[in-house]
């Protein structure tokens, strides 16, 4: 009861509304699954489902048929576990830190083994329990970030006792340049992936992230691992985005004013009015995940009207040039769009000199979060 009252108050108190359309999320999952069919489509739900709330996102994807969930850190697996039924698999991309093997085995979480050391630790855990423990094995095919080098893989295959007690369910690797279809690294990684795959023919192959799903059949494998495309981000750079938009962000106006030529705007007076103009201050800033790089660069929208950001982005507020709107259009409490039908994730990311991934995972905690349920659509 107390929490209901509290959440009513919080709903009214918040100056911004972040709407997360779980119906669009599920539609995106279905679209990707269809592209991969008959192969499986997993979901990458690391970083709190790219900032959108894993407690809501993961069950919605499970209900849509997803059974494999990738997180980055083991702590994320621990927190995700209670939100998913027992037949869902949780895999940990960053591998296992020494000391967490027993907890990982107890929880039935599947580690991605990225080194011979992690293989040895997981095998020791299995042997000490007299159990067979599942794992994914990651090969580095050219990104130099995570996974076994080719010679380490040879060592592992030449000395199979190293895998005692470990069942390799999935062999995987990750594309460094998948979002740039013409990049030569894609073909080089594919060739190395095929060589690895040939040495481990019984394991399922997992290669494609969101971009990989759109690179053609060669890149797909048995278990695709999309992240950003589920959340509405464009899988490929510079092409039309086939995904449905999942996120909408609206922020309230906290003050409006008219200033004269010469007025200095915001910290550092980085913007000076050239003529009379109308300004609106909105209640979100870099502490809410709107990057400071949007200073004098990005915009908000009211309908089709672009409202440029003037001056620096503050911690808790942003000043907009609303001169393009008839006087009195925006009033205290009115909402403008930061992400939505008029300004996509890609547009705001590009204005901020970053990528959709960073915008999503930075979305602040001060917005009211509204989840549209798939059933309600
Ligand atoms: C983050 C990540 C993914 C998902 O990538 P997207 O580009 O968001 O689809 C897949 N695999 C690995 C190893 C990752 O780190």
UniProtKB/TrEMBL annotation:
One of its GO terms (biological process) is D-alanine biosynthetic process. This is Alanine racemase. Gene3D superfamilies: Alanine racemase, Lyase, Ornithine Decarboxylase, Chain A, domain 1. GO terms for molecular function: alanine racemase activity; pyridoxal phosphate binding. It comes from the Bacteria. GO terms for cellular component: cytosol. The gene is alr. It comes from Aminobacter anthyllidis. SUPFAM superfamilies: Alanine racemase C-terminal domain-like, PLP-binding barrel. Its cofactor is pyridoxal 5'-phosphate. PROSITE patterns: ALANINE_RACEMASE. Residues 246-372 form the Alanine racemase C-terminal domain. Keywords: Isomerase, Pyridoxal phosphate.
């Amino acid at each position: 009861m107390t929490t209901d009252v509290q959440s009513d108050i919080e709903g009214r108190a918040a100056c911004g509304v972040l709407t997360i359309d779980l119906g669009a999320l599920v539609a995106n999952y279905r679209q990707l699954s269809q592209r991969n069919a008959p192969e499986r489509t997993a979901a990458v739900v690391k970083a709190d489902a790219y900032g959108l709330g894993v407690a809501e996102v993961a069950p919605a994807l499970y209900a849509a048929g997803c059974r494999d969930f990738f997180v980055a850190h083991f702590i994320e697996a621990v927190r995700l576990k209670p939100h998913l039924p027992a037949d869902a698999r949780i895999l940990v991309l960053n591998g296992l830190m020494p000391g967490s093997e027993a907890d990982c085995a107890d929880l039935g979480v599947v580690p991605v083994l990225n080194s011979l050391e992690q293989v040895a630790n997981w095998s020791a855990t299995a042997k000490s329990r007299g159990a067979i423990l599942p794992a994914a094995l990651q090969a580095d095919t050219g990104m130099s970030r995570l996974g076994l080098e080719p010679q380490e893989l040879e060592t592992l295959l030449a000395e199979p006792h190293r895998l005692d007690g470990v069942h390799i369910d999935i062999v995987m690797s990750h594309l460094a340049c998948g979002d740039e279809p013409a990049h030569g690294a894609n073909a080089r990684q594919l060739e190395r992936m095929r060589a690895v795959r040939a040495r481990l023919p019984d394991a399922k192959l997992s290669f494609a992230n969101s971009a990989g799903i759109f690179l053609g059949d060669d890149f797909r494998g048995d278990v695709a691992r999309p992240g950003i495309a589920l959340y509405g981000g464009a899988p490929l750079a510079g092409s039309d985005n086939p995904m449905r938009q999942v996120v909408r962000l609206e922020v309230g106006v906290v003050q409006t004013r008219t200033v004269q030529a010469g007025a200095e705007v915001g910290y550092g007076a980085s913007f000076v009015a050239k003529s009379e103009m109308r300004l609106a201050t909105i209640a979100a800033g870099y502490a809410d995940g709107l990057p400071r790089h949007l200073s004098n660069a990005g915009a908000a929208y009211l309908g089709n009207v672009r409202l440029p950001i003037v001056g620096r982005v503050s911690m808790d507020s942003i000043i907009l040039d609303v001169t393009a709107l008839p006087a009195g259009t925006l009033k205290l409490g009115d909402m403008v769009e930061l992400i939505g039908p008029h300004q996509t994730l890609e547009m705001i990311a590009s204005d901020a000199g970053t990528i959709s991934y960073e915008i999503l995972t930075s979305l602040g905690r001060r917005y009211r979060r509204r989840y549209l349920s798939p059933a309600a659509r």
